[in-house]
Structure to design on (725 residues):
């Protein structure tokens, strides 16, 4: 251990003790404060604030900070050490520098954005741009109150001023368990830029596999809550993720960042809830089966397949046009007469509907008009008449009012949707609109709706109809929307959500190279950016991959280059590991070879190892066989709500978003992976799930795009040998 390192370690140990003493003191004081249990609202709010602080400080007491930055603000003449932690802690003395600075504070941005060099650095503060010199950038690892590691990534006073990735590589080399975790101590400059971007812009982020998109999105939410405390609230922020298991996988990050109450859900759950649809949504298994289970029989993909069409802006516009035309045909074509001799003319009712209540959406307008008709009947009934006549009128009026109400269109989204697809009559749908819907979409959707079956792909349209006829309530609006795996969302999804969010405040993240659901997702980001005004959207690209070793990334890149052509390749972080192995099944056969691989990887102490098959059917069969051989493995089949880590078997298309210490991809041959971009993307997704080791098995030849042994620079990317035991 060098002298300078030893003195840095001692200095940090001393400082840690002083900090923990102060945090403990503040915590003790709060704990001794009597807990308020009464009914006074103000006191309750204050107590909630104290409780929040107790929780924060008890976390801080275990690991008060993770970084130190020595900064001299221009003109101040003083070089100050700033300690940066997940939770900010003020000193008791007023006017003093904070003891620990919250990672989201403006000055803390220097810790992430400063990447070395002699020049002065700047950060954006509320009072303007602050300039100064960075002297030291130091990572400090504290676990359970013990200082474990001190690593300087920049030191102006040393002869080695360049920032290195050493600390990042150390963190990336750790094995992963079943949950995604926060990265506050190692956020990279390109990620920090996204996390701290202004709120009222639709950010579209193309990030290669493992570039931290999901992680960055979660940190961004925590940042927005801190930076725009007065304007946004956690309950009005939402992250849309692809499925429940993925939501479980990411569920620890926000609480770890001290943020609660942000909605984390899937789009179908949100939509079904908003529509108050009680019926179950059609199982997605059939769609997945069509596109993934029978590689050779995959339908031809074009913009008229149901998923692409129903997610298109042309479908959205068709609905809008139809419903705005419907306004004309809403008021029943008749006068209203509650009993013979009393008449409310159609013209009068039209006046109420078309002028007085014009500013209301259709359903509310109808409601208002019907209420007014009811009041009119009551007034008419008050006119002098013998009791028996009055009674008779009342009875007649009640039944005629009911009959008249039935003549109005029903502004109920599912009913209207069924009318659009000719499953039931009404809805004044122009024939031209129905003809504009591709025949295959018309046929399939009508067949579904006849059976009362609604698919995921129908939800944007249904919610849109809901917003057009009912409007959006204040409590349904969002302050910010995050869409993860956005390449699987359609333009219609985004345009629809845009109506629910103030100021186009979006973070949209995805990877076109992982666009395996291209039968419903976008094919280019322009499909989404064009939905926003030019000055209110921004595009970022994340090109470095943090998940996998260089060897894995180099190999996965060759799949993109050769199989997808337009695929955006990843730049690995300099973290080296074992070579990627492409292995024929041994003479013992497929299952035993896979079992042998599992055994070899298991002894390496990896916490998560997965076998990825091409289809669900194969995953189920393999899972059964391995269980019979005594293995305890999770079968991930799309129905699971939790990801428990350990050993898993799953079809490759369900692995998107997840990661494993080691991944084994089974059956990488030319019948399972056909020579087309869709299958190459699928294999790319599978390969980029691995952090440390990737093994691919095959019987017969590998697909051409997976058979590279060297990349275009002549470097080795895969070997064909089992490891030596
Ligand atoms: N700055 C960082 N420091 C440490 N780890 C990081 C950093 N950025 C990302 N990672 C790690 O890289 C892995 C990939 O992150 P994440 O899952 O967020 O990426 P992604 O872009 O959403 O991936 P994919 O599109 O492949 O699902 C995670 O283990 C995450 O913790």
């Amino acid at each position: 251990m060098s002298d300078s390192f030893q003195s840095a370690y001692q200095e940090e140990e001393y400082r840690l003790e002083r900090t923990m003493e102060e945090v403990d003191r503040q915590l003790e004081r709060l704990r001794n404060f009597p807990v308020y249990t009464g009914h006074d609202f103000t006191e309750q709010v204050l107590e909630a604030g104290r409780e929040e602080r107790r929780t924060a400080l008890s976390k801080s007491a275990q690991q008060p900070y993770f970084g130190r930055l020595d900064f001299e603000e221009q003109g101040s003449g003083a070089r100050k050490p700033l300690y940066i932690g997940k939770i900010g802690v003020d000193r008791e003395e007023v006017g003093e520098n904070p003891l620990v600075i919250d990672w989201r504070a403006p000055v803390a941005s220097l810790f992430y954005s400063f990447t070395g060099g002699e020049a002065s650095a700047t950060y954006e503060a509320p009072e303007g741009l602050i300039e100064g010199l960075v002297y030291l950038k130091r990572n400090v690892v504290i676990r359970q109150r013990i200082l474990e590691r001190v690593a300087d990534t920049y030191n102006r006073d040393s002869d080695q001023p360049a920032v290195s990735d050493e600390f990042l590589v150390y963190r990336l080399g750790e094995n992963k368990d079943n949950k995604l975790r926060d990265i506050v101590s190692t956020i990279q400059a390109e990620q920090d830029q996204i996390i701290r971007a202004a709120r009222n812009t639709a950010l579209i982020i193309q990030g290669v596999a493992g570039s931290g998109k999901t992680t960055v999105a979660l940190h961004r939410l925590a940042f927005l809550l801190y930076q725009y405390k007065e304007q946004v609230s956690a309950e009005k922020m939402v992250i849309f993720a692809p499925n429940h298991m993925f939501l479980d996988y990411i569920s620890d990050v926000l609480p770890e960042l001290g943020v609660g109450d942000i909605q984390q859900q899937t789009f179908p759950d949100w939509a079904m809830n908003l529509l108050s649809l009680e019926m179950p949504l059609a199982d997605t298994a059939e769609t997945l089966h069509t596109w993934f289970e029978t590689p050779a029989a995959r339908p031809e993909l074009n913009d008229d397949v149901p998923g692409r069409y129903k997610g298109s802006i042309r479908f959205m516009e068709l609905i809008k046009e139809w419903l705005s035309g419907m306004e004309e045909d809403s008021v029943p074509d008749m006068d209203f007469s509650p009993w013979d001799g009393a008449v409310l003319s159609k013209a009068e009712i039209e006046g109420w509907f078309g002028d007085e209540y014009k500013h209301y959406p259709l359903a509310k307008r109808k409601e208002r008009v019907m209420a007014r008709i009811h009041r009119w009947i009551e007034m008419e009934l008050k006119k002098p008449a013998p009791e028996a006549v009055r009674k008779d009128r009342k009875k007649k009026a009640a039944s005629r009012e009911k009959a008249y109400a039935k003549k109005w269109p029903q502004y109920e989204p599912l009913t209207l949707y069924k009318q659009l697809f000719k499953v039931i009559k009404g809805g004044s749908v122009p024939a031209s609109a129905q003809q504009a819907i591709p025949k295959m979409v018309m046929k399939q959707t009508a067949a579904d709706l006849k059976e009362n079956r609604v698919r995921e792909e129908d939800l944007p349209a249904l919610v849109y109809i809901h917003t057009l006829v009912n409007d959006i309530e204040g409590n349904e609006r969002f302050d910010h929307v995050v869409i993860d795996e956005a390449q699987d969302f359609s333009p219609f999804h985004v345009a629809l959500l845009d109506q629910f969010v103030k100021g186009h405040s979006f973070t949209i993240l995805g990877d076109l190279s992982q666009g395996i659901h291209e039968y419903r997702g976008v094919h280019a980001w322009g499909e989404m950016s064009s939905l926003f005004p030019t000055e209110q959207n921004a595009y970022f690209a994340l090109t470095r991959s943090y998940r996998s070793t260089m060897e894995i990334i180099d190999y996965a890149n060759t799949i993109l280059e050769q199989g997808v052509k337009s695929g955006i390749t990843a730049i690995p972080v300099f973290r080296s590991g074992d070579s990627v192995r492409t292995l024929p099944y041994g003479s013992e056969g497929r299952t035993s070879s896979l079992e042998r691989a599992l055994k070899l990887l298991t002894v390496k102490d990896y916490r998560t190892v997965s076998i990825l098959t091409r289809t669900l059917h194969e995953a189920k069969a393999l899972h059964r066989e391995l269980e019979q051989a005594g293995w305890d493995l999770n079968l991930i089949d799309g129905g699971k709500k939790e990801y428990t880590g350990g050993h898993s078997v799953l079809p490759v298309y369900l692995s998107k978003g997840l990661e494993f210490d080691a991944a084994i991809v089974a059956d990488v041959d030319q019948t399972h992976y056909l020579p087309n971009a869709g299958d190459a993307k699928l294999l790319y997704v599978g390969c980029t799930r691995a952090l440390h080791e990737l093994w691919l098995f095959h019987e017969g030849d590998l697909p051409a795009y997976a058979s590279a042994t060297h990349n275009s620079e002549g470097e080795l990317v895969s070997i064909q040998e089992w490891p030596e035991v």
About this structure: The CA atoms of residues 659 and 689 lie 4 Å apart. The chain has 25 helices and 21 strands. The mean pLDDT is 90.
